[in-house]
Amino acid sequence: MDVSQYLDLFLEESMEHLQALNTGLLNLENNPERLDIVDEIFRSAHTLKGMSATMGYDSITQLTHKMENLLGKIKENVIDLNQEVINALFQGVDVVENMLTRIREGESPDLDLKDLMEKLTALEENKPVQKSVAQSEVKKKNKAKNKQEKQAKVEKEAEENVNEEKPEEAEDNNQKEAENQVEDIKIQLNKNEKNVINEAIAKGYHVWKIQISVAPECVMKGVRAFMVFRNLENLGEVIKSVPSAQDIEDEKFDRDFVLFFVTQKEQKELEAALSISEISVKNMEELKSEKKEAVKPVLNKFVSASSGKKQTVHQTVRVDIGRLNKLMNLVGELVINKTRLEQIYLSNDLRGLNETIEQINRITTDLQMVVQNVRMVSIEQVFNRFPRMVRDLSQEMGKDVELILEGKDTELDRTVIDEIGDPLVHLIRNSLDHGLESPEERKALHKNVRGVLKLSARHEGNRVTICVEDDGRGINIEAVKKKALEKNIVTSAQLETMDEQSIVNLIFEPGFSTASVVTDVSGRGVGLDVVKSKIHALSGQVFVETKKGQGSRFIIKLPLTLAIIQALLVKVQKEIFAIPLANIDETTSLETDKIKNVHGQSAILLRGKVLPLIYIQKILDVPDEDEAAELNVVVVQKGEQKIGLVVEELIGQQEIVISSLGKLLSGLPGIAGASILGDGKVSLILDIGTLF
Fold first, then answer.
1. pTM strictly above 0.70
2. End-to-end alpha-carbon separation of the chain, Å?
3. What is the SS3 string spanning 358-371?
4. In what order do the strands lie in the sheet with 649-657?
5. Among 591, 552, 382, 528, which residue's Cα sits nearest to residue 452?
6. 355 and 363 in contact (C-beta within 8 Å)?
7. Please, are residues 557 and 541 in contact by the beta-carbon 8 Å criterion?
8. Which is the catalytic residue, given 68, 84, 137, 509?
9. Angle between the N-to-C axes of helices 114-124 and 58-75, in degrees from 0 to 180, rounded to the nearest 10
10. Active site residue 430
11. Looking at 27, 29, 46, 640, which residue is catalytic?
12. Contact call for residues 471 and 547 (beta carbons, < 8 A)
């Protein structure tokens, strides 16, 4: 039976059962007397075993069968449930997850399971385990196996490439180039990739081999690498990466990786795009065509041969049948009204036309809401990753931590859900490592020995607020000041004029860290600029509240969806811009003579408080034609700060569809995208997070 068509479904359901195993084991660890939890875990392991057997993945079948046997003995009270048994089952879950990841990447799931199988067998037979196999050791062995397999693949491809070369071509190879290839990361391109490169060069493109290095002190290597891919893909196409893009994102590399990049841009533009904190370019080499003969044109090869990108696995969203029925009914109504419009056109019935337009307005509004709801996914699938992570890290660091999860049923757009995980992981690791104190330190401070880490989500209008808070040390303001001066982030004069919140916000600056020792888990502040960058890329905001000795709270505000938003249209000279309503506090009008100059900054007095003013016209270089006597101010919120955006005219509120600017214009500071208005004009959407 051909089961390849079921691979996506198998991977999706397997990950759900793995999550159920993780959740069940955590519950069992906290409630060892509840045998009903053992039943739930047993069922998940049994289902996973059956699915793997059907798909022909024998190694997963054997491991889950062994875990199932151990759980069966626990159910029958043949063996005692202790920490060693729990840890062994967690270890089995991790190995299964590793094997599923390999399947997703198109690799063999077979790993060295000998030590783990022996350990599970010994526990099942109630024998003492001769040698404890640490979870980290299993991961090291599996990583070593992955590395050996990839090295063998490279050597095999190298041998094939040598055999393909003609003797005279081999003799012409420059000795210096051969030495450089040995020093670089070993890479061999297959025939398809070579053809893509040759065709690109023949069409006048530049093909670059770029060796990237991540700084040793960098904590979130995968996120830094994500920024490299994002910046480059705005300029061209990454056709291969070594290691693979998935391995890089999962941080399965040391510090270096290599990209093969096709572009029409010049080297200076690439160097500017790669000017990223904690990223350095070790080597940038432009490749030349290996073959002189013409290559058969393949129109879409740049996309189809992008082996550096992740293997495509179709993303799915499970949808309630009621939502689909509602969607179908609305489409039916739309068809009926389309037919009615055709009849009105033939009969010139203007009254009927007006009624039909109102009907279509109602239907399209409902249709939009239903489709938006279909895309909505519970944030629970992100939150469910963290109990296990907190459990493992708190044990590793010798801390007693209670994780509280609130608002797991809060829904977000699938696009946002897919991107929010990494920033939350980093914030949680920071709290565990440097926010929460050790039990001894908490006892000396007369705090509860058990620290509290709280992760919550809630709807606020058309936005979602996510909070990560702890009851630990809080952020040391004096340490932040000292480090900011050491890193030349601000001057002493600037510090004197800054309030406490502005000083705390310095932790989001690139390269900032108050940690005296960088640990494997995190360093307080390290990489928070990356967190901020990723949140801003989602049209969101992040800011922090802290009290020394009482804890810190990181607050993330995100839009419900990235597709359709409510916006305020404003006119600056003859240009129309859209400002997302989620960022707007209020609007007001003022006469130009009311504007004051405060320390070189234009400002007005609004209800007794000084409001700094920013002129959109100046920031975006809009041509200056007329100077109005009266201006309008849109008060927007950026973190905890309020700013007044000066515009000539307020056009009104409108629902707009966000469209990408494309590779040529994407990445412009202050611009989130564009929208086509009802009259066919294009309006740029302002990104408040990067506008000023």
1. no
2. 59
3. HHHHHHHHHHHHHH
4. 649-657, 564-572, 575-580, 682-686, 671-676
5. 552
6. no
7. yes
8. 68
9. 20
10. yes
11. 46
12. no
